[in-house]
Design goal:
α3 packs across α4. The protein has one domain: 2-Layer Sandwich (GTP Cyclohydrolase I, domain 2), CATH 3.30.1130. With about 120 residues, the protein is α+β, with helices and mostly antiparallel strands. The radius of gyration is 15 Å and the shape is elongated. The mean pLDDT is about 95. The chain has a five-stranded mixed sheet. It has helices spanning about 20, 40-45, 55-65, 70-85, and strands at about 1-15, 25-35, 70, 90-100, 110-115.
């Protein structure tokens, strides 16, 4: 299976377990690996046969910023479900959500990575 990757989709999100942490938006990054067949698009050089990764980026950012999240795990699950439901050419997706935790100043980054596929 082929893969299209989007690395470091920057989002401004209210995320964190304590309410205090969710009061201010935090910068997070979302990395995606979309498993799809790129052969037709690659052979023809026709963007209409490829996954529209510009749309993927916009849909993911809009959904991430639209609500509050306690857990980056929940954001990752929601992102994977969204991609699989809206982009039919994507057979599986790996989602990695990264953030610098405001309540953990001694930790550079927390991340969660999941892989989900169509059943």
């Amino acid at each position: 299976m082929d893969q299209v990757s989007l690395e470091g989709i920057q989002c401004s999100v209210r995320v964190g377990v304590p309410e205090k942490e969710r009061r201010r938006r935090q910068k997070i990054a979302i990395d995606l690996a979309l498993e799809t067949d790129v052969s037709a698009a690659g052979r023809s050089d026709d963007f209409r046969l490829a996954v529209d990764y510009w749309s993927v980026e916009n849909v993911v950012r809009e959904a991430a910023e639209a609500r509050e999240w306690r857990l980056v795990e929940a954001l990752a699950e929601s992102t994977a479900s969204l991609i699989l439901s809206q982009f039919k050419a994507v057979r599986a997706v790996r989602v990695r959500v990264r953030k610098r935790p405001a309540v953990m100043p001694g930790t550079r980054e927390v991340s969660v990575e999941i892989r989900r596929s169509r059943h």
